[in-house]
Every structure is written in structure tokens, then in C-alpha cells.
Specification:
The complex is a heterodimer. Chain A is built from 13 helices and 24 strands. By secondary structure, chain A is an alpha+beta fold. Chain B has a 4-stranded antiparallel sheet. The chains are: A alpha+beta, B alpha+beta. The complex binds FE2/S2 (inorganic) cluster and fe (ii) ion. The site of FE2/S2 (inorganic) cluster has 9 residues of chain A, from loops. The site of fe (ii) ion has 6 residues of chain A, from α6. Chain A: It comes from Antricoccus suffuscus.
Chain lengths: ~425, ~80
């Protein structure tokens, strides 16, 4: 790192300026360790969806950064996020990605825990002075705060801090929008996750999620092959906007463009007739006028700080492993009570981010080339000034730029800096 | 955080274990993230699910533990 701390300016003052950020932010292992403490182990992080653990005693494996976690639902229906580490000698307690069990038994010495993390018992208990001697003292690590919004479950390693609703701020409305696409008002994540390891810093992914400048270049091939109208949304002519939602969250609001056409389901690249069952359930549930508006405006394209990205029909969760590596999990959105559209949501998602999906492969290539580049010595900075002079404030007080501007990135870095400077 | 209830009850019925004293329908249920044994008391209209670890525990339960559970005042008809 070449920047030095001088005077009262913080280390991050030296590295993050309004329109450029220093390359070392993506490569420095010390900064990564600080990010874990100040971001990943302090704020709310998305860990899963309630629909992934529908029944009492269901559980799924999840993660926050390098921490291996289990999201469980106990017998009473309460959700817990447990650290997957035995209190005895640290062994991994859960191996399967998902299952149904009221308790977990460590394979090493058989210590057994309830699915709320409490130690239930241990073999040959005389060695501990009998039954009931250490149960209260040793249990699985439990994340002190777990909460959900529209079924999206978030957890925090910190026992104090803003509430989930405060953390989500304006981004909560985008989760409402997603749920509103279901005739029953519920989006679910039941299609299964695909894991994709990427040799890049997690922030490159976050920045890319609402970067409307790259799609025409990076995704030109898939837009061409599929005849998708998406490319045109990200151009100089587009009426779509990039919005800094505050709190590090940002979105590409594509609604102005879809309203212009006024065609239901255009956002999904189809017509109402081709998803007839879905459309009629929507009209039944919400009435013609509201249903039509929702079907015209489509799904949100929102990056929720620090790791949840909703790209219309698919959801991504970013898990950093080191300064140079992260895992992206992705899954198709499923709309409860939607009938015929759910299968299409899965196949479109597979086509874009499945094992042979074109969008994910395109983007990953870019992340990894970027990571390679930021390791080089000159120039030291990455530029994020695009659109700064034409940025405006919308009627709700949010900063907005045009479809291709870097407004979202600047919002991300402002929030990042405030967290990293906090004690 | 109310549980999400799947719409259908996915159970593979095995059969009914019955005597003059009790009648229980046994099936394997697939509604959750892993299979569970579903036991339905056909006379008392109550359902219980048992996961694999609980079943294994039953297999190893000592006879006197089991008899203690059969005491009518143990759970069902306690004051
Ligand atoms: S490490 Fe888990 S029981 Fe010993
Ligand atoms: Fe992309």
C-alpha cells in the first residue's frame, strides 16, 4: 500500500475519495481482516430464506464470510443461526447441506446439541462429573440477532446495532416489490443454490451488481442470442435510473423504461398470454389495475449491502473468503401460488447463472480480470466518476444517475467508509 | 417469523400398526429438508414426527425407560 496516514485524515480517507478508490482496497489482507470485523461480523448479513426451512427441525448450511453456519428452525418454529463448530474440540458438527433433525450430534465424540444450539448431552458423562454439569456452559455458537423481512433471513454477530428494518432502510421496499409479484404476496427461495467460486475480491461483485455501464459489452452475446430487450435498458437513451438508496444499498430502477412500453411481462421477456395461469392469478388476487401495474413494472434489481443481490428473477448471496476470493451462491426466485411461471423462472435462471449460464460466466471473467489488474502497480486508483456531474436528487431525496452511471458505486463506498472508520 | 407451511402433505404410507389397545398409522414424510417418520394416533387424532436421531435413540432405549413412558400418567393423562 502506498498511501500513508497523515494528519487527522483516517487511513480510509486516504484510500476512498468521492470519485476514485485505491486499488489496495481489493488486495490488502489487513484491510480484509478489518472488513470482517467491521462489516461482516457487525452488520446484518443475509443468510437464507424462511422457505428454505419450512418445517420444524429443518436446517440448511449457510455462511457469513469464512464462518460456517447452520440456519435452523426449532420445534416451536423459531429460527436460529448457529456456528457449525463443536464446543468440545472444534469439530464440524453438520456435514449435509440440508436436513431435518431436532438435534445435531458431533461425529468426533458424540456431543449432541439441540437445534437451538444448547448442549443436550455427551457420552460417558462421568468424565464431566455426571449429567447436567457443563450443559449450561458449553453450547454451539449462536448468532445473537436473527430477523427476517419478507421471508429473507438476516443475522448479525453483533448483539447491538440498528434493527434489521433500520439496516434495510429504503431497500425494504424492493423486497416488498419482489413479494408483490406473487399472487399470494410471498417470494420463496426453494429452487436450491448453486455455488460458484470466484477469484476476486467481494467488492468487485457488489460494485458490478448495479453497474449499468457494462451489460452491452459483457453480455452482448447472450442478449444477441436470446433477442432479449434488456440491453437497451442500459444505454444513453434509456429512461431507467441508478439510485443510491443509502446504507450502501443501490438499485437500477428499470420501471420508467417498462412503463413507457406499458406491456405486462415485458420485463420477463414474455407476454401475458404465454404465462396465462400466472397472469390470471395475479389479476384475481390484486384486481386488474394493480395486477397490470405490477406485471408491467416487474421485479427489482437491487443490491442490499453487503451481500444480497436481487437481479429480477434470481437471487445472489456473496460470501467473501479472503481479499482475493469469494463464493457466489445463486438461486431462482419462486413466486408462491404462481403456477406456470415458476418453472420458467428456474430455466431462465439456469440459462443465465446455471453451470453453463452465460451471464455468470461473462461477469466472472470480468471480476477475475479486474482482480488481476488491481494487483498491478500503476495507475493506483480505480475511477468511479461516471455521471457525477449529472447526478440529481429524486422526489424522495435519493441520489439518482442515468442507467449507465456509477451512482450506486459511490453510494456503496460512502457507506463502506463510514463503517470502516467506526471504532 | 411464522413457519412457512408447504401446501401438500408429502407422506409415503407404510401401514397401520394396531392392537386392541391402540392404532397408529406410520408413514415417511418428505415435507421437510429430510425424511421423518410420521406417526398418527388414529384414535386420538394426534401426529408426531420423529427424525433419524430420535428413532435411533428409541432403538437403544432401555426397556425400563420405555415402560416408564407407558405409565398413563407420564405425559398424556398427567394432572
Ligand atoms: S469435537 Fe465434537 S464431540 Fe469432541
Ligand atoms: Fe453483468
Amino acid at each position: 500500500m502506498t498511501a500513508t496516514v497523515s494528519g487527522k485524515a483516517s487511513k480510509y480517507d486516504q484510500l476512498i475519495e468521492p470519485t476514485r478508490v485505491h486499488g489496495s482496497l481489493y488486495t490488502d489482507d489487513e484491510i480484509f481482516r478489518e472488513e470482517l470485523e467491521k462489516i461482516w461480523y457487525r452488520t446484518w448479513v443475509f443468510v437464507g430464506h424462511e422457505s428454505e426451512v419450512p418445517e420444524p427441525n429443518d436446517y440448511v448450511r449457510t455462511a457469513i464470510g469464512p464462518q460456517d453456519l447452520v440456519l435452523s428452525r426449532d420445534r416451536e418454529g423459531v429460527l436460529h443461526v448457529l456456528v457449525n463448530r463443536c464446543a468440545h474440540r472444534g469439530n464440524l458438527v453438520c456435514d449435509d447441506q440440508r436436513g431435518n433433525s431436532s438435534s445435531f450430534r458431533c461425529p468426533y465424540h458424540g456431543w449432541t446439541y439441540k437445534n437451538n444450539g444448547d448442549l443436550l448431552g455427551y457420552p460417558f458423562n462421568r468424565g464431566y462429573g455426571g449429567k447436567g454439569n457443563i450443559e449450561g456452559e458449553l453450547g454451539l455458537g449462536v448468532l445473537p440477532r436473527v430477523d427476517s423481512y419478507q421471508g429473507f433471513v438476516f443475522a448479525s454477530f453483533a448483539s447491538e446495532g440498528p434493527s434489521l428494518v433500520e439496516h434495510l432502510g429504503a431497500a425494504a421496499r424492493e423486497l416488498d416489490r419482489l413479494a408483490g409479484l406473487s399472487p399470494e404476496g410471498k417470494a420463496e427461495l426453494t429452487a436450491g443454490w448453486l455455488k460458484h467460486q470466484t477469484g476476486a475480491n467481494w467488492k468487485l461483485l457488489v460494485e458490478n451488481e448495479t453497474d449499468g455501464y457494462h451489460p452491452q459489452f459483457v453480455h452482448g452475446a447472450i442478449f444477441g442470442v436470446t433477442g432479449s430487450p434488456i440491453g437497451a435498458l442500459y444505454s444513453d437513451k434509456s429512461t431507467a435510473v441508478t439510485r443510491d438508496l443509502g446504507g450502501g444499498h443501490s438499485e437500477n430502477d428499470l420501471r420508467p423504461e417498462f412503463r413507457k412500453f406499458g406491456e405486462p411481462m415485458r420485463w420477463f421477456g414474455t407476454t401475458e398470454e404465454r404465462v396465462f395461469e400466472y397472469a390470471s392469478r395475479m389479476r384475481e388476487a390484486y384486481g386488474d389495475e394493480d395486477a397490470e401495474r405490477v406485471m408491467i413494472e416487474g421485479a427489482p434489481h437491487v443490491m442490499i449491502f453487503p451481500n444480497l443481490f436481487i437481479a429480477e428473477i434470481q437471487v445472489f448471496a456473496i460470501q467473501p473468503l479472503s481479499a482475493h476470493e469469494c463464493v457466489q451462491r445463486s438461486t431462482a426466485v419462486q413466486l408462491r401460488g404462481a403456477g406456470d411461471i415458476n418453472k420458467r423462472l428456474v430455466s431462465q435462471c439456469m440459462g443465465s447463472v446455471g453451470p453453463a449460464g452465460m451471464l455468470l460466466a461473462d461477469d466472472t471473467e470480468m471480476y477475475e480480470r479486474n482482480q488481476y489488474g488491481v494487483g498491478m502497480r500503476k495507475p493506483e486508483w480505480l475511477d468511479i466518476r461516471r455521471g457525477v456531474d449529472r447526478e440529481r436528487v429524486d422526489e424522495n431525496g435519493f441520489k439518482i444517475g442515468t442507467a449507465t452511471d456509477e451512482t450506486g458505486m459511490r453510494g456503496f463506498w460512502g457507506h463502506y467508509k463510514s463503517l470502516m472508520e467506526a471504532e | 417469523m411464522a413457519p412457512y407451511r408447504p401446501p401438500s402433505d408429502q407422506s409415503r404410507e407404510i401401514g397401520i400398526v394396531e392392537s386392541e389397545f391402540a392404532s397408529v398409522r406410520i408413514s415417511i414424510n418428505d415435507d421437510g429438508n429430510g425424511p421423518r417418520l410420521r406417526l398418527e394416533d388414529l384414535r386420538g387424532d394426534k401426529v408426531r414426527y420423529l427424525d433419524a436421531l430420535e428413532l435411533e435413540t428409541l432403538v437403544w432405549l432401555r426397556d425400563e425407560h420405555l415402560s416408564a413412558l407407558l405409565d398413563p400418567s407420564a405425559d398424556r393423562w398427567r394432572e
